[in-house]
Every structure is written in C-alpha cells, then in structure tokens.
Amino acid sequence: MALALLIGIWAAVCGFRWIPSYMLPSPGAVFRAFISEFPFLMRQAKITVIEAALGLVLGIVLAFIFASLMDRFTALYKALYPLLVITQTIPTIAIAPLLVLWMGYEMQPKIALVVLTTFFPITVALLDGYKSVDPDAVSLLQSMGAGKFKIFRYLKLPSSLPYFFSGLKISTSYAIVAAVIAEWLGGFRGLGVYMTKVKKAYAFDKMFAVIILIIIISLLLMLLVSLASRLLTPWLQAKQKQ
Amino acid sequence: MNILDNAPLLEVRGVSKSFGGNTIIKNINLTLNEGELVCLLGQSGTGKSTLFHVIAGLYMPDEGQVLLRGEEITGKPGKISYMLQKDLLFPHLTILDNTALGLLIRGEKKADARAKAAKEFSKFGLEGCEKRYPVQLSGGMCQRAALLRTYLASQGIALLDEPFSALDTLTKSAMHRWYLNVMREISLSTLFITHDIDEAVLLSDRVYIMGNNPGEITTEIRIDSPKPRPDDFTLTEEFLQYKRLLVEKLR
Fold first, then answer.
1. Which of B58, B93, B132 lies at the smallest CB-CB distance from A143?
2. Residue B1: which pLDDT band, with cuts at 50, 70 and 90?
3. Is residue A12 a contact partner of residue A180, using CB atoms and an 8 Å limit?
4. What is the interface pTM, i.e. ipTM, of the complex?
5. How far apart are CA B145 and CA A76, in angstroms?
6. Are B78 and A150 in contact (CB under 8 A)?
7. Nearest CA in chain B to A241
8. Model confidence over B174-204: pLDDT tens digits?
9. What HEC string does chain B produce?
C-alpha cells in the first residue's frame, strides 16, 4: 500500500515534469530499462549473489566459531571483543580498495568484505544468546550429570537460535549491499561494476533499475532467512498460536 | 543379605558449607527413607537451597557426606535431580523431550528415552501434551512435566525446592492432593523445601526445621496422621495442633 503510494507520487512528479527526466527517470522508463537490460542484469546479479551468499555463509561459520569460543573462554572474550568492535569502525569505503590491493580483482576481496560486514551482528547476537541462558537451567543440567558439551548442545545452542536469527536478518540485509560496494570499488563483474558504468553514462533509468533489482534480491534473501528461522525455531511459532 | 539393605534411601551426614568465610549451612544431618515425604521448613535465606545443591552433587561440602542407598555420592552430580519453583522447562523442547532430558543426558538413545518418558505421561496427567511446547501449557501442567522430568532423572528421589509456591491457592491445593497420589503410585520419595507451614503439615511424614545464621537443623517433628489424609485435613484440630507446634519451634 505504502509502496504503491510511493510509486504513484514518483510517477506524478515525473509526469508533471517537476523534476527533469535526466535527474529522475519515470517509473515507466525504469521499468523499460529493467526489461531491456534484464538478461545482462541477471548475469551480473548471479556474480553478486554468489559473492554475498558465500560471504554470508562464511560470516555465519566464523561467527559461530568466534562466539562459541569467546563464550567458553572469558579471557578470549576480553581479548577479542574490542578487536571485533574495531573491525566495524573501519569505513567500508577505505577497507574495500585495500582488500582489492591484497586479494586482486576477482571474487575474494568481495567475499572478504561481505564476511567483515556480516559476521559482527551475528557474533554479537550469538554472544547475547549464550548469555541469556538461565544459570538455574545450567545447574539443573549439571545435576543430571551434563558436562560442558551437553549443556551447549541441549541448552545454550537452542536458546541462542532466536538471537542468531535476529542477527542474521541484519547481516543478510547488509550482505548484498556489501558485495555491491566491493564491486563498485574495484572489479570486472557484478552489479556494482555495472552501476559504475551506468553512472558514468548518466543512464539513471538503468541505475534505478539496478537499485530495484538489488532491493528485490535482498528481500528474497530475507524471506529465505525467515523461512529458515520458522523451520528451526518451531517453538516460537507455538507461542504465537496461543 | 547385603548390609546396605538397611541403609536409608538418602542420608546426609554432618554437612557444612561456607562461601567466602560465611557459614551457610552447618552440620546438617538428615535421612529420607523409601516412600517418605520429608519437609525442610525454614525462612528464606536459611541455606536450604545450598543444601539441595550439595545433595544434587553440584557443590562439594566443606565437611560431611551424602549417601544414596548407602553409597557415597558427595560432589557427584547425575544421581539425584531437583525441581525448583520455576519449572525450568526448556522452551525449545516439546514436553516429551523436556521430560526425557535426564535420560538423554545419561546417554540413552533418543527413541528409547522418549519411549520411557511417554509411558509415564498418563500417570502424571499429561497425556496429549507430548508434542506441545511449554508455552502452550498452564503453570500447573508445567510443574507436572517438570516433576516427571525430575522423577525420570533421579531414580526414585525427588528434591523439590518450593515447587508449588508460584501457583495460585486453588491450583496449589489441587497439586498437593495430586502429588500425594502420584507419589504413592510411583513409589517416589521426596525431600521438600518450603517456608509454608500448612504445606509442611499437610504433606509431610516428618519435618525438619531449619534455623537461621548459620543454617542448622534445630528440630525434627514427626507428623503422625495416617496417609492418605482426608481432604478436610487442614480444618481438623489435629492439623492445628501440629501447626501450632511448628510455629512455636520456628520462633
């Protein structure tokens, strides 16, 4: 509804020529560009999606390793947490060209940038999740004879899943954007590279078409994450049904 | 004849525990016999929960021993489980998996553990709840499930730490009646912490009264009224006499 209204205003603004069309292309023009460029866009999108997905998966794996070790060893937590925060304060625009310098123009630096941006929210979410566990529940498992591993397996890991998915939703929304930025700042293929080209050509209708494609891809990925979340945390749905 | 056959089910011998120079419990001696319900009655902060942690093997006492059927289990968890006022059911597990938890931890196969737990569901009035999650059950039902979990995890002994104190009065008295029945049926022996004098008189075969600072057992009182006790037991002269006695001893 809000979306339809937005497009309506956009069409009106262009239709009455309040803003010249070379500055803001009309929805129709964007749609035509989207259709005419579609096969090419898809090929570029494939690259970007692969980078984002690989980066996200690696980010998840790293987050699990970091968070679990940091939860297990307090010294590690104290040593690593400030470092993790620092990695998030480095501007993406500054680090991306460096990554290209170190890793070349292919996929590696893009994946690295996606990992850097996605693993932090997941790590923090997992750490919070592990901490959220009731100490009395831990004692109860110990009274049943559970060791550290079983406490992790039966209590900490499942209780942290809802937290994990909150973190993952944030990270997923960053993943595509991070891949695009990395491509924009140095590469041969992908939606980001395409964007630099249409920008240089002042083809704003095509620019808008890419932006819309990026939005669609991000939304699809988010949808995938919420499906996974529904599948893996059935008890939260049970609560909603009540 | 094994000499251990005469040993009480659970025996606590001279247990003391202090934290950071503060003696929390001092020289606790108590026994729990097969089929008995014994209450530990005292104000909050008398170290009753600390004692439970020692019995469950989670704390190593500074002095003393815990014996289960004559065998020393001091500081060894995994033998006796307990239940608190909070049900501590895991929200991410179904009721069936929650109740089977102790068996799973002990290393039984998932299918076996589930089958064993499922067999007990009707006795505990939980039939039909197997596949539900704790959020879908009422407080009383959750306590039943927690009790079943404790029963399956601790081989005949239940340590209960104010298990019914979060329930409303009506649910609570229904749970009392229910508990006494189920205990008889499954021959469960119970050590029960409470600060509720009525609850102690109503349920117990014996009551240990704990005093404050440090937590010490000051008196042991036997409640001789035969079981099962009538529904209106709390209104009888006998009940009031015991209550008066306990109030006096608690001072």
1. B58
2. very low
3. no
4. 0.85
5. 38
6. no
7. B136
8. 889 888 888 888 888 999 999 899 999 999 9
9. CCHHHHCCCEEEEEEEEEECCEEEEEEEEEEECCCCEEEEECCCCCCHHHHHHHHCCCCCCCEEEEEECCEECCCCCCCCCEECCCCCCCCCCCHHHHHCHHHHHCCCCHHHHHHHHHHHCCCCCCCCCCCCCHHHCCHHHHHHHHHHHHHHHHCCEEEEECCCCCCCHHHHHHHHHHHHHHHHHCCCEEEEEECCHHHHHHHCCEEEEEECCCEEEEEEEECCCCCCCCCCHHHCHHHHHHHHHHHHHHC
Query: CA quadruple B222, B227, B228, B234: dihedral positive or negative?
Result: negative
Phi, psi of B128 (to 5 degrees): 90, -10
Which of B57, B77, B88 comes nearest A137 by C-beta?
B88
Classify residue A222 as exposed, middle or buried by CB count within 10 Å of its CB (0-12, 13-18, 19+): middle
Full set of structural domains in chain A with CATH: 28-229 (1.10.3720.10)
pLDDT the model gives residue B5? 61
Pairing mode, if any, of strands B63-68 and B157-161? unpaired
Calculate Rg over the CA atoms of chain B. Answer: 18
User: DSSP string covering chain A, please?
Assistant: -HHHHHHHHHHHHHHTTSS-TTTS--HHHHHHHHHHTHHHHHHHHHHHHHHHHHHHHHHHHHHHHHHHHHHH-HHHHHHHHHHHHHHHHS-HHHHHHHHHHHH-SSHHHHHHHHHHHHHHHHHHHHHHHHHTS-HHHHHHHHHTT--HHHHIIIIIHHHHHHHHHHHHHHHHHHHHHHHHHHHHTS-SSSHHHHHHHHHHTT-HHHHHHHHHHHHHHHHHHHHHHHHHHHHH-HHHHHHHH-
Determine whether the interchain pair A158/B53 forms a contact, defined as Cβ–Cβ distance below 8 Å.
Answer: no
Query: Is-cis flag, bond preceding B228, omega within 30?
Result: yes
Chain B: residues touching A (Cβ < 8 Å): 53, 56-58, 77-82, 84, 86, 88, 90-93, 101-102, 104-106, 132-133, 135-136, 153
* pLDDT in single tens digits along all 242 residues of chain A: 888 898 888 888 888 878 887 778 888 888 898 899 889 999 999 999 999 999 999 999 999 999 999 998 999 999 999 998 888 888 888 888 888 889 888 888 999 999 999 999 999 999 999 999 999 999 999 999 899 999 999 999 999 999 999 999 999 989 999 999 999 988 888 999 999 998 888 888 889 999 999 999 999 999 999 999 999 999 888 866 65
Structural tokens at position A213: 């494609």
